[in-house]
Amino acid sequence: MAAAEVWKFAPAYELPTWPHVRAPDLDARERIRYPVVIAGGGLSGLTLACDLLLRGVEVVVLDEDDTVGVRGASSRGICYAQKSLEIFARLGVYEQIRAKGITWSVGRTFSGADEVYSFDLEDDSRSEQPPFINLQQFYLEWFLVDRIRALDKRAIRWKTKVVRVEHASDGAVVHVETPAGAYALGADWLVDATGANSRIRDALGLEAHASRHTDRWCISDVRFKKPLPVERWTWIDAPFNAGRGVWQHLMADAVWRLDYQMDEHADPESISQPEVAGARLREQLGPDVEFEFVWIGPYQYRDHLLDTFRVGRTIFVGDAAHVVCPFGARGGNNGIQDAGNLGWKLALVVQGRAGEALVDSYHAERHAAAVENLKVTSRTARFLAPRTAAEHRLRRAVVALARTHPFARKLANTGRMAQANDYPPSRWAPAGARSLQNVALGTTTVMQLLADGTRFLGLWIGGGDDDSASLGDVARRLPFTAHAVAADSPLAVHLAAARGSLVLVRPDAYVAATIATPTPDRVEAALRRALALDADAR
Amino acid sequence: MRTDPNIADPDAFYEAWVAAHEGLSDAESAELDARLVLLLANQLGDPQLLLDCIAAARRAAD
Lengths: 538, 62
Description:
The complex is a heterodimer.
Chain A: E1 8-9, E2 33-39, H1 43-54, E3 59-62, E4 79-81, H2 82-91, H3 94-100, E5 102-104, E6 106-111, E7 114-120, E8 132-134, H4 137-151, E9 156-157, E10 161-168, E11 171-178, E12 181-192, H5 199-203, E13 211-224, E14 232-238, E15 244-250, E16 256-262, H6 268-271, H7 274-285, E17 291-305, E18 310-311, E19 314-316, E20 322-323, H8 332-350, H9 358-384, H10 389-402, H11 406-409, E21 434-435, E22 440-441, E23 444-445, H12 446-450, E24 456-461, H13 465-470, H14 472-477, E25 480-485, H15 490-495, E26 502-505, E27 510-515, H16 520-530
Parallel strand pairs in A: 1-17, 2-3, 2-12, 3-9, 6-14, 12-19, 24-25
Antiparallel strand pairs in A: 4-8, 5-8, 6-7, 10-11, 11-12, 13-16, 13-17, 14-15, 15-16, 17-20, 18-19, 21-27, 22-23, 24-26, 26-27
Helix pairs in contact in A: 1-4, 1-8, 8-9
Chain B: H1 10-20, H2 26-44, H3 47-61
C-alpha cells in the first residue's frame, strides 16, 4: 500500500477591508432622511447602489461586515450570465470582470464516459458580452465596491448592523448599531438586500414558503496543472463518484470548482475532510496530477419565494425575496437582475419623473421571473436526485435513448442556464416585456446609449433625422430619446421589427412596446403607460 | 420513426411523467408505464412505426 498522500492547501484569498467611518447621523440634531437606504452589501445590494448612484440618486448601503464575500466561505456564486454582464457594462465594471474572469459558452453533459448532450450558448448570442463569465463572487463584489466608492466615498457604511426597522406609509426608520454608536436613519425607500436569512423580512412576519431539499453536495475548489477544456462539464452519473453527479468548472486564478453529489445521508463533517475530499479528487484526476485545495464546502440547498416583493415603502431584492435550487446559475444572476429592474424605476419615482405605481411593476415582473426560475431549477433538481427506484428507471431510459436519439437528449437536464426572463403582460407593458441584447450600433452599443442618464430609447427602424426630430416635444416632456436604426442593421434584425416601426426600449434594456406606425401621440401614450404616468396607473 | 426532438416542452413532460409515479410502489410504477405505452401507441397507430419503436427500445437494452 502506498504511503498516505499529503494534502496541500493554497493560502487563503486576501480580501480587502474598508474602514468604518463615523456616520454624520450621529452628530446631526435631527434625524437625516435619505431617498434610498439599502440594507445589505451583497451582489444585489451593491448592483442596485451602483445603478442608483449613476442615475444621480443619493443612496446609503448598510453592511454588517467590512469586506466582501462571506467570511470562512471561499466563494458562493461563480457563473455570471450575459444579462448580468450587460448590466455591469452599463455600470462600468465589465472590463475588470472580463479581464479577471473565465469566458465560456460550451456545456457538456456526460453519463459514465459518454457525452449525452452539449450546448453552445454563443449560437444565440448577438451581444457585446459573452454568454457567461465565471468569477468568484467576492471579486465581483470587490469591483462593485471600488466603483461605488469612486462615485460616492461615503455611500457604503461598513460595520453597520440593522437592528430594527419601523415601517410607515411614507418610508421607514432604520435603527443601526456601529462601532461609533447606535443611531437611526430615515428612508423614503428601504431596500432589503440582506439575503436568504433576512431579519427585516422575518420581522414583518412575511411567509416565504421555504422548503428544504435532501440532495447533498460537497464542493472542492482546487488548483491543478492538468489542462482541461474551459467548458461547463457535468456528469449525471460519474463512475469516479459512485455513480452520482459531478460538476467541473473553471474560475479565476486557475481555480477549478469540482462539485460532487453525495449520498443524501452522508455526514457533512466526514465528506469534507481533506483525506475524503482528496480521495475523490484522486479518483477523478488520476494518480499523477498534483493539486492543492483552495476550499472544501459541503452543502444542502433550500428554496423560498416571497408572495410580494414590495410591502409599502420596503422592497425585497435578491435572496431576501427568492432562493432557487443552485442549478443553471439562476441565483446571483437574478439578484443582479432584480437590481437592474428596480434601479431605473426607483430613480424615476424618487426624481418625480414616473408614477409611484411603477414600483409595483418591479414586483409584477421580478416575482414572475422568480416563479419561472424556481420551476426550472426544481425540474433540474428532480432530474439530478431521483427519489425512488421508479424515478431512477425513468432517468435511465432517457440516458439510454439519448446515446442514439437526439429527442431524448432534450430530456436530460443538468441545468438550464440563466437567461433574461421575459416579463408577462402588465398594465405597464400590455404585450409583456422581453430583454434586448447589447447589440452594437455603429460605433456605440445599446448599453452605451442607455448609460447616458435614465431614459427610454425609441429605436426608429429605418427612420431618418426628420423622424427623430418629430419626437422632440416628447423628449422634452418625458425621459426619452429617439434614435434612428438602419433597417438592415444587426440590431434591427435582432429586434425582428418591421421597417417604419418604433421599438420602445426601457432603461433596463427591455422592450416595453413596439409601435407599428409611430406618431408623437402614440409614442407619448406608450411612454406614459410604461412610466405609470397614465390615468389608469394613478 | 422520428428521433429528432419533437416534444414541445421536454422539461415539462419529464416533470409530469415523474409526478405521475409519485406515491406508487415499484411494481405499480412499472404497470403505469405499461399502460402509458399502450395509450401512446394508440396515438401513433401505424404498425411499422410501432415495430420500429419496439425494436429501438429493445436495442438500447442490448
